[in-house]
Amino acid sequence: MSAEVEEMLKRFSTMKNIVGIVVVDYDGIAIKSTLDNTMSVHYAAHMQLLTEKARQVILDLDATNEFTSMRIRTTYFEIILVPLEHYFIVVLQNPCD
Amino acid sequence: MSAEVEEMLKRFSTMKNIVGIVVVDYDGIAIKSTLDNTMSVHYAAHMQLLTEKARQVILDLDATNEFTSMRIRTTYFEIILVPLEHYFIVVLQNPCD
């Protein structure tokens, strides 16, 4: 895995209230994860769909612009998506106190 | 428009670095906007697709969970999406200093 990914993982793992981190390739396959196998597979596949849609929507609105990250708030937790060159990172975080 | 939407608009319009605010119905039609007509139509349609995908992905992962908001960072600006009952709000914001 590239140094960029390792650096990101290190940065995220020091953040507070982290529930899980998954590294996903652009085929939607989890290649590294702190979640159990079932959760990793589900999150990887679903977040790949969402990352792809976000990337496409931002490009369609302005071909010179680029999607750099996304934070999704849900009832239970937050999901952070960071697209890198060959992978994207999914971070699940409990809301901060 | 409902009091909930008016309240949200008031809240967002006091935020710093706001570029534009669009209120969109779930058919992807802009019903109120501070952007010009072309931009409003584009943002409404594209953000409706993204909101729908986010809502669906979060539900598919856990049927008891719910998507409550999203912040997308791009090279040029940030996009905040807040789904309400009958509409969702799209806020374009320049990155904070």
From TrEMBL, chains A, B:
Citing just one GO molecular function, the answer is: dynein intermediate chain binding
Domain Roadblock/LAMTOR2 stretches: 5-93
Source organism, top-level taxon: Eukaryota
Where's it found, cell-wise? Cytoplasm, Cytoskeleton
Query: Which GO CC terms are listed, alphabetically?
Result: cytoplasm; cytoplasmic dynein complex; microtubule
Tell me where the signal peptide lies: none
Q: Which GO terms describe its biological process?
A: microtubule-based movement
Supply the Pfam families for this chain.
Robl_LC7
Q: Which UniProt keywords apply?
A: Cytoplasm, Cytoskeleton, Dynein, Microtubule, Motor protein, Transport
This protein's major location comes to cytoplasm
Q: Which PANTHER family match?
A: DYNEIN LIGHT CHAIN ROADBLOCK
Q: Which family does it belong to?
A: Belongs to the GAMAD family.
Cited function: Acts as one of several non-catalytic accessory components of the cytoplasmic dynein 1 complex that are thought to be involved in linking dynein to cargos and to adapter proteins that regulate dynein function. Cytoplasmic dynein 1 acts as a motor for the intracellular retrograde motility of vesicles and organelles along microtubules.
Name this protein carries in UniProt: Dynein light chain roadblock
Where does this protein come from, organism-wise?
Drosophila albomicans (Fruit fly)
Taxonomic path: Eukaryota, Metazoa, Ecdysozoa, Arthropoda, Hexapoda
Q: What gene name is given for the protein in this entry? A: LOC117566178
